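Deliverable D4.2, example record:
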Amino acid sequence: MRFRLLGISLLGSGIFGFEKNRPTTFTYPFRSLINEFHMFWDAPTGSLSIKLVAANATYNQPST
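Output generated by the structure prediction step:
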């Protein structure tokens, strides 16, 4: 638990301190939560990769 908090704090300091970025999660927390559930459902059903390709997103697909 301590390592997780350390990692989150380092991540937050990098985002806010160096990049001067404010994540959309803070602006639209409910929308972000809903999208997390969508991705959580799409990953095991296999439709996540299809949606990423449709959105022209680049990602590294594991080789099988």
